[in-house]
Amino acid sequence: MVIMALSKTRLLWPAWLLSSIVIGLVYGGKLFTAEDRQVFMPGPLSNGHYQLTEKCELCHGDAFGGDKDSGEVLQAACIRCHGKERQKPFDSHPQEKFKDPRNADRLQKIDALRCVSCHTEHRPEITRKDGVTQPRDVCYHCHRDIAEDRPTHRAMPFDSCTDSGCHNFHDNRALYTAFLIKNSGKPDTREPATIPQREFASTLDEVADYPRDQYPLQALVAAQADAVGPLSATIVRDWAETAHARSGVNCTACHVLGNVPESLGAASAQWTDRPTQARCAVCHQHEVQRFGRSKHGLREAVGLPAMTPAQARLPMHDKLAHQALDCNSCHSGHRFDVRTAAVEACLGCHADEHSQAYKKSRHYGLWQAELAGTAEAGTGVSCATCHLPRISFDVSEWSSRIMVDHNQGANLSPNSKMIRSVCLQCHSLALSLDALADPALIQRNFDGPSAVQVTSMKMAVEDQQRRKQKRSDRE
User: Fold this and answer.
1) 303 conformational bin, left if phi > 0, alpha if psi -120 to 50, beta if neither
2) Model pLDDT for residues 275-289, shown as the tens digit of each residue
3) For the whole model, what pTM was predicted?
4) Which of 466, 463, 468, 472 is nearest to 178 (CA)?
5) Which one, of 95, 178, 191, 108, lies nearest residue 142 by Cα?
């Protein structure tokens, strides 16, 4: 019996060794050939970073995790992507605030100089909205005495500080006291309730690197299309009706690789049937850069295959599940119709409750009226109106223009970031705060009044009146 047991053991050793080698080769291949590396993660990534599972080195510096002890590698990665948004006026708690010697004692409670103190990845069991991994009452460490200065805050629990309508740790521009007071008592709807108009065409003369020598700013007609080979009548018609044709942007501007001298003609150029996003960036550099910051364009911006609806964590339609998301996904050639991109392109992919409720909302009625020409330009409210807002953007050191911000995540969460760039163009601050604090109303796409009443503005006014009374009593 002993001999038989020893024989079985000798047979198991080669099998164990072979299986170990195979497993090592499989997992080693995943690690060093940029295949799916999720198998090595201690836990899944948050909603903001999950698209980067194949690019561990973006944050860690190398495939094995980088500098785990000091966290300097991770901090540098955070700053590289989010640094500009973590400065005043976009950040209420920038690093400079905690480097002030007067606040040194606060760093003993929480290391606010490092992003990972509040945003620890791979910890889904403690990860809340916006990738926050600190407890909800984290504000207590610095603001435990708030009720002494503001009696309106007495008896309020510290786990309610960051609720919508109160405070955001980073971007608090729409919620700070002076702003609440300034905007109190305003009517629910502003007059006029319109969004600003885009200024790209009117500012082209200021774009230093625009290829105006090849494509002067003059309107073109269908007969002037300079494509290589025959074109269908539909393509020619679609192009001739666009802003591209009206601005002198011909076929070769997008379909020819590199700058081709006019003397050579289109026939001598290197023609491509499918222009890449890099061609769009020749003229629309800032739009493409902002798109690369969004969830739609993040993957392609860091050298990964483009995002598809199938990879989203929100419900999506199956029809376009594997459609790569790039400029042409929404601005289909050759029309590049911005109106189609503003609604139909969004609803072609998004199947979540909020998106599907849009066509039942009053906003959609306003959009239809603008499209029909029965309402003024800028009075309609499309998906893009709120999620790709028109903002004043510094396009150079000496000029700015109104452009569409293609980074839809810039004002998405926390949703109070949307107040300044979107809501206040048409509505009062009070109505906006109430609406954004009502999850059920958001799901209905703001079709009806809010069932939530945010008291922030009332509290701010009461605090102001109390301070004025104290000054008056001292006098």
Assistant:
1) left
2) 988 889 888 889 999
3) 0.86
4) 463
5) 108
